[in-house]
Specification:
33% of the residues lie in helices and 23% in strands. By secondary structure, the chain is α/β, with parallel strands linked by helices. The longest helix has 16 residues.
Length: 391
């Protein structure tokens, strides 16, 4: 295969940006050949912006049209798994926008379909391309920080106005979007958190509905996690604070990492803290340590980087930076947080009862005010700064 012919299913804000990137030659070895959307106005915009690209109103017709080898799924969250699974079963490679879906059980079914298909399956976790997060993961997973003690991520600079939520009837509804800040904005951070520190064994959460906005889902959430070795984690996120904070601190037996303000600060103990704790003959002591501040020498490649990696995986068998099955892990965290809230802020052990979650989510969706049909205006096709890592 000399190149990958790609189709974008769903050309709203993200999908139109992906289509524009591909059509402009932003991804080597991958060419835009088809788009699909249920809204005629969006298809009209695509015909004007992408001459020669086939336009479809029904994704099933696209899958049988013969113009593409791979699909990029950028439809509303509750449709991700169903459409991506149909594409994989039809023989297409698939890349799904985050989150992989709104329900862990449906995400797991999608992963099973991907394994059976043998096709390349990826998820758009674009902040994994940031070199500071990559270095942070290397340090923690490589054992240079010792055994994990605690991680704290305050990520409250996902600020949104009421106008943002009012711009589409699907936004911030249980039936249309499937959740709030944990499902729309913070999946990037939930993913990076587990990518760096690993998965916890339990989640206890407080998800505040409509604390700052007139919406039916959470716009602030606090998660408390416990890891297998006894380490603890704290994750705080919000769309109602300004200017907000983006600060990740990780403590281990060999020191501390702080990622904030576009720099990774690393305090390196010259001997393990627990050794000093039990061998020192002093009541109070200082442990010898070194300090390093790491600043990136290159920019994150973001969405285009994930698309390029997806193309490389199809054409040359390159390892995926964001394999589709990794999307299950961050969704596990947000689903568990919702379940904890719905059950009176109860501790939720992982893995949790997905059938119970699905029943409770269905109850929320049945009471939702979502009315299909109203969407925001035509996007401009650019990757906005709000989708990048903001410090």
């Amino acid at each position: 295969m000399p190149e990958v012919r790609a189709a974008v299913i769903g050309v709203g804000n993200m999908g139109f940006a992906h289509a524009s990137c591909l059509h402009s030659g932003g991804v080597q070895g991958m060419r835009l050949t088809a788009v699909c959307d249920v809204e005629p106005a969006r298809l009209a915009a695509c015909r004007e912006r992408f001459p020669g690209v086939r336009c479809y109103e029904d994704y099933r017709a696209l899958l049988s049209g013969g113009e593409a080898d791979a699909v990029i799924v950028a439809v509303p969250h509750p449709l991700h798994a169903r459409i991506a699974a149909d594409a994989l079963r039809a023989g297409f490679h698939a890349l799904v926008e985050k989150p992989i879906d709104i329900s862990l059980s449906r995400a797991q079914d999608l992963c099973a379909a991907a394994r059976e298909s043998g096709r390349v399956f990826a998820v758009m976790l674009n902040q994994r391309t940031n070199p500071l997060f990559q270095r942070c993961r290397q340090i923690v997973r490589g054992g240079e920080l010792g055994e994990l003690k605690r991680s704290v991520w305050i990520i409250t600079n996902w600020y949104r106005t009421q106008h943002y939520y009012d711009s589409g009837s699907w936004r911030a509804t249980w039936a249309g979007e499937g959740g709030g800040v944990l499902l729309n904005q913070a999946p990037h951070n939930l993913d990076l958190w587990q990518w760096i520190c690993g998965m916890p064994v339990s989640v206890t959460a407080f998800c505040d509905t409509a604390r700052y906005h007139h919406i039916e889902v959470e716009d602030e959430a606090t998660l408390f996690t416990r890891y297998e070795n006894g380490a603890t984690g704290l994750f705080v996120t919000s769309t109602g604070e300004y200017p907000g904070t983006n600060r990740l601190e990780i403590s281990g037996t060999l020191g501390k990492l702080v990622l904030e303000g576009g720099a990774l600060k690393w305090w390196k103990l010259r001997e393990p803290e627990e050794r000093v704790r039990f061998t020192s003959q002093e009541n109070f002591t200082q442990i010898a340590m070194d300090f390093e501040e790491i600043r990136p020498t290159e920019k994150e490649s973001a969405h285009a980087g994930i698309l390029q990696n997806f193309a490389g995986a199809i054409l040359r068998g390159e390892s995926l930076l964001s394999p589709g099955e990794d999307g299950v892990r961050e969704l596990t965290l947000s689903n568990a947080a919702y379940l904890s809230q719905w059950l009176g802020n109860r501790k939720i052990d992982l893995p949790f009862d997905t059938a119970l979650f699905d029943r409770m989510l269905a109850e929320k969706a049945a009471e939702s005010a979502y009315v299909p049909g109203r969407s925001s205006g035509q996007p401009d096709g650019r990757y906005g700064s709000r989708w990048q890592v903001n410090w």
